Amino acid sequence: MKALVKSHPVPEEVEWTDWPEPVCGDNDILIKVEAAGICGTDMSVFDWAERTVQEHNVRLPIVMGHEFSGLVTQVGKNVKKDINVGDLVTANIILYCGICRFCREGQTNVCDNRPTLGIQVPGVFAEMVAVRAENVYKVENGVPPSVAALSEPLCVAIHATERVMPKPGDVVAVVGSGSIGLLMVLVLKEMGVETIFLTGIAGDENRLALGRELGAVTINVSEQEPLEMILASTGGHGCDIAFETAGHPKAVLQALSLVRKQGKVGLIGMPHDLTSISTTALCIRENEMIGIRAYTPATWQKCVKLLPKLEKQLSRLITHSLPMSEAKQGFALMKKREAIKVILVPK
Ligand SMILES: [Zn+2]
Ligand SMILES: [Zn+2]
Are residues 83 and 160 in the same domain? Predict the structure, then answer.
């Protein structure tokens, strides 16, 4: 089969090339990939951003990609799950061990031994992928494959709320208007949070416009001082919660600056560089900073239930669709921030 493979630790090198077709083990499900999304992690692998690829422990050569949906072509003989040939499915791409302390408590996202598709094991920018059945989730009839391919980032946004636990009455800021920022707005709205500020920078105008459509108050920080606006609408206190989704040290500091005393900052983005923070200020204001990583099986259950409900809004995030053989163009569109979500189709 063909797959998008990164073989060397150099920036911007990938190849749509021959790769051995995966074998469907007795506990696996073999899936013909229908749609796959490019995300920030893929960008880091593509660009070979040293710190990030080291922290993720990327193993070369690797078939890239981890956001996808596809049609089941074979079901392993030991599989008991209600999944059949022809079903549209998506999958949790973290192959958690199931036996470590964290897995036993359901926190499989921070498993001690968690090989991940597209990072250490062959990913989904390929014609076919085999995934153990435990990790595969059926998508409800009628949800298009491109929308189903957004399950993984949608899980990230849902898990952020599991970690930080916003309440409907909270004022929440989402810093960064990329696909995770916009998915945060969607999920927060769905939870009943009424006041959501979404920030972006020059060049994010289209993303901010979509953020407004999804129900956020948007702030272009290249033109407007977000703190002033937020203080004015919170009686001078600041937000209850801010989520950092941009993955940039400046955005981390911005998120921290926007929350009130005892406010919480959820860290979703993974900056390539270190952030310098005054821990004294954290003490004085009793702020909490909460790391957020991936999702658990419980998150996936919620996600597949939400997909049909949010289908229309989710489809608005997809700005480009390209064949996998032209993935480089997709990476370029992401880098220029022209695209919100690029969907790749195997061909
Ligand atoms: Zn992703
Ligand atoms: Zn584990």
Answer: no
Average pLDDT, the chain: 97
Q: What is the pLDDT of residues 129-138, one digit of tens each?
A: 999 999 999 9
- Domain encompassing residue 251: 155-291
Based on the domain organization, do 285 and 339 belong to the same domain?
no
Instruction: Give the model confidence (pLDDT) of 38-83 as tens digits.
Output: 999 999 999 999 888 998 999 999 999 999 999 999 999 999 999 9
Residues 27 and 115 in one domain: yes
CATH number, domain at 79? Answer: 3.90.180.10
Cα(216) to ligand 2 centroid in Å equals: 37
Ion ligand 1 residues within 5 Å by Cβ = 39, 67
CA of 237 to the centre of ligand 1 (A): 34
CA 262 to ligand 1 center in whole angstroms: 30
121 — pLDDT class (breaks 50, 70, 90): very high
Residue that is written with structure tokens 């970690």 in the block: 163
Residue whose C-alpha is closest to residue 291's, from 259, 269, 262, 261: 269
Ligand 2 centre and the CA of 16: distance in Å? 33
CA 45 – CA 13 distance, rounded (Å): 10
Residue 142 main-chain phi, psi, to 5 deg: 95, -20
Identify whether residues 71 and 85 lie together within a single domain: yes
Same domain, 176 and 42: no
Calpha distance 106→123 (Å, rounded): 24
How far is ligand 2, taken at its centre, from the CA of residue 73, in Å? 29
pLDDT tens-digit readout, 211-245? 999 999 999 999 999 999 999 999 999 999 999 99
Domain harbouring 172, CATH code: 3.40.50.720
Q: Residue 342 CA: which ligand is closest?
A: 1
pTM tops 0.85, yes or no = yes
Residues bordering ligand 2, an ion, CB closer than 5 Å: 96-97, 100, 103, 111
- On whether both 66 and 107 belong to a single domain, the answer is yes
| 236 plus 282 within the same structural domain | yes
Could you give the angle at which helices 40-47 and 327-335 cross, rounded to 10 degrees? 110
| Closest listed ligand to the CA of 43 | 1
Per-residue HEC secondary structure of 98-111 comes to CCCHHHHCCCHHHC
36 is a domain residue: yes
127 CA distance to ligand 2 middle (Å): 29
Given a cut of 90, is residue 285 above it in pLDDT? yes
Which ligand neighbours the alpha carbon of 98 most closely?
2
